[in-house]
Amino acid sequence: MTPLTILKAAVTELEKRNVEYCLIGGHAASLYRISERVTKDVDFAILTTSEETAKKTAGEIIQALDFKPVSGFVATG
């Protein structure tokens, strides 16, 4: 999946669940920069009633996209 495909799929899942969200990170920065900020991930902030609900919702969406949710520090090699 390309980042744009992931972005579209994530938005579909967020809207299907009526989650209030905001695109953040590199893709959001690309909307107001002259040159695109290249990034391979998609970042969202979601508004929920609690941190627990936010983690649960994010995990469900990540799994719906066939990814594995990971939290905490993740070594990149």
Task: Summarize the structure in words.
By secondary structure, the protein is of the alpha+beta class. The protein has one domain. The chain is 44% helix and 13% strand. A two-stranded antiparallel sheet has the order 1-2.
Percent in strands: 5-15%
Helix content: 40-55%
From the alpha-carbon coordinates, what is the Rg to the nearest angstrom?
13 Å
Number of domains: 1
N-to-C SSE string, H for helix and E for strand:
HEHEH
Tell me the structural class: alpha+beta
Count of DSSP strands: 2
Describe, in short, the structure shown:
The protein is α+β, with helices and mostly antiparallel strands and 77 residues long. The chain contains 3 helices and 2 strands; from the N terminus they run αβαβα.
Write the layout of secondary structure elements.
Blueprint (H helix, E strand, L loop, with lengths): L2 H14 L3 E5 H6 L12 E5 L3 H14 L13
Antiparallel strand pairs: 1-2
Name the features.
77 residues, alpha+beta, two-stranded antiparallel sheet, 2 strands, globular
